[in-house]
Amino acid sequence: MAYIDEIIGRIAEEYPEQKEYQRVVREFLTSIRPVVEKEEERYRADAILERMMFPDREHAFRVTWIDDAGNTRVNHGYRVQFNNALGPYKGGIRFEEDVNADKMKALGFQMVWKNALAGLPAGGAKGGADFSWKGKSDREVMRFSQAYAKELFRYLGADEDILTSDIGAGIREMGYLTGQIRKLTNICDGRVVGKGSAFGGTHLRDEAIGYGIPYYAEAALKMAGESVEGKTVTLSGAGMVAIHAAQKAEELGMKVLTASDSDGWVYDPEGIEPDLLRQVKLEEKARMSEYARRRPGSEYHDGPEGIWEVKCDIALPCAVSHEIGLDQARFLAENGTFAVCPGSNEPATPEAVEYLKAHGVRLYPYQACNAGGVVVTSLEFSQDAMHLRWSEKEVEYQLRYHMYEICRLVEDTVQECGLKNDYIAGADIAAFRRVYDAMCAQGIV
Ligand code: NDP
């Protein structure tokens, strides 16, 4: 049996209930199969896949805290330290009701490759708890965050394991985690990133993911002998990622024709006005219909469907996973869309991915296009280590440079491995090689 199939089978057998972990490992291994099969015996002899696919360490712990009514509450906390061959473990903290060991492991696994692809000296990890801030007071969120930090602080360190923000753990929670860890250790360093700017947080924390997407498009088109200047863009979503992607796309000379929320979408032939989008969606928390009401010449369409029927040069899906199904992929291909640069994780269904690849639409990897977040958290960590704070201009320069480098790495790998237009495999193989080289150089440990 092929080495890869052996590992897929072993994981399914040993962790039958961890379906998400099984899925992400299977997808990744399928993507890197051509590389592994070339030197299968050498990889097998060094048990390289076992050492990569099983996490280094999994912490699971009880988080006990007291709510405002004086009741003792108990949640389940996790931290999966997956691989630190490239640098300290680094990855988000997710506070959400459906967090469990399976999700943490799957997300930790994906962080290894995302950080490796970003080219920064960081390993991969993920953590969190089955706790949601929804319906909790600020004091309850603080006490919960402190209790979580108390369980985890001994395993963290700027050179050991770095916590970043994720769903349910934003600037407020990162602040509480920072405070508690500082109190327990008396150390102020970059072991928590995504912090407030008054105590080590970086510029562009909120903007980085969105800004990085048009920067990736700019690099990719340049490498294809094209320019983003004057290109038309369809964009979905109207959250943090989409708003900043729209803003940067416009600044780079693209024309963003659409934006959406879960109720409907807007077509704006003059180009989405980023300030109005921000005002309506972020400041006023209103609906896209309100944007259309205030923007003469724009059209509002009920329901999220239809956005990908609009003819465009570049598509930027920035709303939710699997927003591009087979039907949407058909519209994109028929309309001659040149590239899809996703902000959303797993934006296309597996059938849509295959369709786009087969019909010559360049579907760039989401883990590369939305890597602006991991780039800027690493920049925060670097600033903390130097006890410096870079200007916004410097951080943005670095972000643009790293997005370009990520794109270069993917393109080079696609060319070198003869992957035609399979940029997703290019990203997976490039990340795998980086971790593999580091692990080999460091011996069997
Ligand atoms: P938000 O929740 O802030 O925004 C999502 C936006 O998409 C909202 O405007 C939402 O509308 C809209 N939306 C929801 N469902 C649909 C739908 N079916 N069709 C069209 N629009 C829809 O998320 P973010 O902006 O933070 O993230 C966007 C994507 O980027 C997500 O897929 C996320 O996983 C991914 N991502 C986010 C990262 C982050 O740190 N923020 C990191 C990496 C990836 P409504 O206002 O009605 O809710």
From TrEMBL:
<feature type="site" description="Important for catalysis">
    <location>
        <position position="166"/>
    </location>
</feature>
<dbReference type="InterPro" id="IPR006095">
    <property type="entry name" value="Glu/Leu/Phe/Val/Trp_DH"/>
</dbReference>
<keyword id="KW-0560">Oxidoreductase</keyword>
<dbReference type="Pfam" id="PF00208">
    <property type="entry name" value="ELFV_dehydrog"/>
</dbReference>
<dbReference type="InterPro" id="IPR046346">
    <property type="entry name" value="Aminoacid_DH-like_N_sf"/>
</dbReference>
<dbReference type="GO" id="GO:0006537">
    <property type="term" value="P:glutamate biosynthetic process"/>
</dbReference>
<comment type="similarity">
    <text>Belongs to the Glu/Leu/Phe/Val dehydrogenases family.</text>
</comment>
<dbReference type="Pfam" id="PF02812">
    <property type="entry name" value="ELFV_dehydrog_N"/>
</dbReference>
<dbReference type="GO" id="GO:0004354">
    <property type="term" value="F:glutamate dehydrogenase (NADP+) activity"/>
</dbReference>
<feature type="active site" description="Proton donor">
    <location>
        <position position="126"/>
    </location>
</feature>
<dbReference type="InterPro" id="IPR014362">
    <property type="entry name" value="Glu_DH"/>
</dbReference>
<protein>
    <recommendedName>
        <fullName>Glutamate dehydrogenase</fullName>
    </recommendedName>
</protein>
<dbReference type="InterPro" id="IPR006096">
    <property type="entry name" value="Glu/Leu/Phe/Val/Trp_DH_C"/>
</dbReference>
<dbReference type="InterPro" id="IPR006097">
    <property type="entry name" value="Glu/Leu/Phe/Val/Trp_DH_dimer"/>
</dbReference>
<dbReference type="InterPro" id="IPR050724">
    <property type="entry name" value="Glu_Leu_Phe_Val_DH"/>
</dbReference>
<feature type="domain" description="Glutamate/phenylalanine/leucine/valine/L-tryptophan dehydrogenase C-terminal">
    <location>
        <begin position="202"/>
        <end position="443"/>
    </location>
</feature>
<dbReference type="GO" id="GO:0005829">
    <property type="term" value="C:cytosol"/>
</dbReference>
<dbReference type="InterPro" id="IPR036291">
    <property type="entry name" value="NAD(P)-bd_dom_sf"/>
</dbReference>
<comment type="subunit">
    <text>Homohexamer.</text>
</comment>
